[in-house]
Write a structure and sequence with these properties.
This is Holin. It comes from Liquorilactobacillus capillatus DSM 19910. Keywords: Membrane, Transmembrane, Transmembrane helix. Helix 2 (about 25-45) packs across helix 4, helix 2 (about 25-45) crosses helix 5 (about 85-135) and helix 3 (about 50-70) crosses helix 5. This protein is mainly α and about 140 residues long. It has helices at about 1-20, 25-45, 50-70, 75-85, 85-135. The mean pLDDT is about 80. The protein is elongated, with a radius of gyration of 24 Å. It has five helices and no strands. It has one domain.
Length: about 140
């Protein structure tokens, strides 16, 4: 087990070294974390975000990343922050998060449908068994 963890750690270090200076890495990382956070807030914390609020969130996040990039004097992070703060990026986040929310709603509906179907089938099976028992 220890070897597996150490091998995973070595792979993560290689991944970090290979990608830490790439703007696309930072944009992908922030995008993933933002969608994950917004989805968590929508379902677990039952928050509801409008498109305007999500645009504001991504703009603030982009500005914060630019600030961190300037403090660290890291042009890659500054560029990532500019991309994240753009209106186009915000629009994509809104669409992606909405798609995740829609899929989650569809899954809930499907689960309820399956539960109802299973309940009905169970009740039918009981009736059939009772009829067989009574016919004997």
């Amino acid at each position: 087990m220890k070897e597996i963890i150490e091998a995973g750690g070595r792979k993560m270090k290689k991944l970090w070294k290979a990608n830490r200076d790439k703007t696309s890495f930072w944009i992908s990382l922030v995008t993933f974390l933002l969608i994950l956070g917004l989805t968590y807030a929508e379902f677990k914390l039952t928050f509801s975000f409008t498109a305007t609020e999500m645009t504001l969130i991504t703009s603030v996040l982009g500005s914060f990343i630019i600030l961190i990039g300037n403090i660290l004097n890291n042009k890659i992070i500054v560029e990532a922050g500019k991309s994240i703060g753009s209106a186009e990026f915000s629009e994509k986040i809104v669409k992606t998060t909405q798609a995740v929310v829609d899929i989650q709603k569809d899954l809930v509906t499907l689960k309820k449908t399956l539960e109802n179907s299973n309940t009905q089938q169970f009740e039918q099976n009981i009736k059939i068994q009772e009829k067989i028992k009574n016919d004997k």
